[in-house]
Design goal:
2 domains, about 220 residues, about 60% helix
Length: about 220
Amino acid sequence: MEEARIAEIYHRVSNAYQIFSENGNEWEANGLNSTPFKNLVAAALSTVTHSKRVIRACVALFAVASTPEDIARLDDDRLKELIKPVAHYNRKTIQLKEMCRQLIQRHGGEVPATREALLALQGVGPKVADLIMNFNFGGDAIAVDTHIHRLLNRTGMVQTKSAEETAEIINTITPAQYRKHAHEWLIQHGGLICTAKKPKCEECIIRDLCEYQKLASH
């Protein structure tokens, strides 16, 4: 897709949606990103899980444990019970415990402020690392989840098979002035309009710029 059309897509979504700190986003309202550690835990628990379930689990967890040391001291069964609303809570219990041990042993209990160090933590993939770098450490990397991966492929901005590949490309082709908040605008449009089963094309503000109908017809 040509640069001018990409820029126009961003121009429209940036005008249509507020950033999370301005729109009463549930993640913000429930304090899930009030510290880098809370945001890291919440992001790690969010994989293949609806936001409402992540919020429920994190509110319960942070009420009793809000630091790496707190979680490391929790009994495994107790931690499992607290994060039970999220998918794969058994596996995530093990990963979360190991992540906290790594934070304590390698970083003095602090969340590292580099993408490389974040990716070295248990349970942290590219999406989570990009989220933390963006929201907590002033980076402008665009984190790509399933909503954004679907939206970008439907529009024709990318043609990729994986979210990781999408992230690599979109971080290169997105105009600099939009990178910082691109995740916030795109995830809202993907979740509200460009839905998985039945996209609301008739309501879409970028319909005339999108290649979905053309791609779907082939």
